[in-house]
Amino acid sequence: MSSIITVAAAQLGPIQKSEGREIAVARMVRLLERAYRHGAQVVVFPELALTTFFPRWYHEDLDEADRWFETALPSPETAPLFEAIRRFGLTVYLGYAEIAYEPDEAGVMRKRRFNTSVIIAPSGEVILKYRKVHLPGHAEYAPARKVQHLEKRYFEVGNLGFPVVRAPVGEAEGVNMGMMICNDRRWPEAWRVLGLQQVELVMLGYNTPSMNMENRGFEAHHLRVFHSQLSIQAGCYQNACFAVAVAKAGTEDGHEMLGHSIIVNPQGEIMAQATSWDDELIVADCNLDMCQLGRSTVFNFGLHRRVEAYSRITDQVGSVAPPTWPAR
Ligand code: CDT
After folding, report:
1. Helix axes 79-88, 21-37, angle to 10 degrees
2. The whole model's pTM is what?
3. Sheet of 242-247: strands edge to edge?
4. SS3 16
5. Where does the CN hydrolase domain lie (predicted)?
6. CA–CA separation, 188 vs 184, rounded Å?
7. Is 197 in a helix, a strand, or coil?
């Protein structure tokens, strides 16, 4: 059995607010066809791939934002995507805004909204679902901000943890696959929870603005790219896995998105990088045997992790000040 799989990052250029799903879906189908022609078996799309990055737009009434959400997959509008997945025999990561009618933590059945991604098998079946855990931004309209980032308004915190599934991909009889969404990539805890499940391939879509819109200080554009890639490269190295990290790129209604999609190996090296601010496919061959080196040496978790020293990671949320010296 081969342990080499060919993966593709299907970066999307801008999707304007006025553009309907059929436009995005048609572009995505074209990227799937190109991925197939390049011999790819896995294709990763960005976060919230079917629409513009709508959390920059404020709606007083949450229900007014429902047009950005999916209540079912596939739907009449997304069916062409599923047909293409079956036709080309691809394993696909799709990010979208999800409305689910399900019980909450108190057991009350209600309408819930999540920032979600799924892995779709070549049969068209959804084999794994993830709901974004690290939601950035704010819940109320923020007048001081240059642009709103209302993820905390439109989405609940994901309630599925960071799951991993093993499934056949191409000639490989099983690949351990997990997901993250955008801001999750900046949190080492997310990578480690996947690493603890022997993840081999992390699929990750993002929608990162090129400029810091918080108005709390200057952050150079090149550092935004650096921080994105630093996080992904470190996550791959420290958990001995590959990542396909895929951006929305270019200018959506005047708002520039970061681009710079990358494919990273378990040494933390960038194997391929997008260079446009438009729809773009980058492809890399990933030899899954490369995951073994880190896993059996410096990051052999079973031998070297010291959980007795890590309790703050799960017992404490915010940071606390250390004791001062000299003591008074
Ligand atoms: N979509 C998303 O999660 N975006 C955030 C913006 C944070 S601003 C630093 C991200 O982490 O890219």
Report:
1. 10
2. 0.97
3. 164-169, 172-181, 201-206, 242-247, 262-264, 270-273
4. coil
5. 5-288
6. 8
7. coil
Backbone angles phi, psi at 231, to 5 degrees: -65, -45
Q: What is the pLDDT of residues 277-316, one digit of tens each?
A: 999 999 999 999 999 999 999 999 999 999 999 999 999 9
Q: Does 41 sit in the ligand 1 pocket, CB within 6 Å?
A: no
Tell me the pairing of strands 242-247 and 201-206.
Answer: parallel
State residue 214's pLDDT score: 74
Residues designated as active site = 47, 132, 182
Low pLDDT (below 50) residues in the chain:
none
Pick the CATH number of 4-303 from 3.40.50.300, 3.60.110.10, 3.40.50.720, 3.30.70.1400: 3.60.110.10
Report the C-alpha gap between 113 and 62 in whole angstroms.
Answer: 10
Looking at residue 327, what is its pLDDT? Answer: 84
61-72: pLDDT as tens digits? 999 999 999 999
Tokens 């920059």 label which residue? 56
Mutational test site, ligand 1, from 154, 182, 260, max ligand atoms within 8 Å of CB: 182
**Distance from C-alpha of 108 to C-alpha of 110, rounded to nearest angstrom:** 6
Report domain extents, the chain.
Answer: 4-303
Q: Give the pLDDT of residue 19.
A: 97
What's the confidence (pLDDT) of residue 218?
78
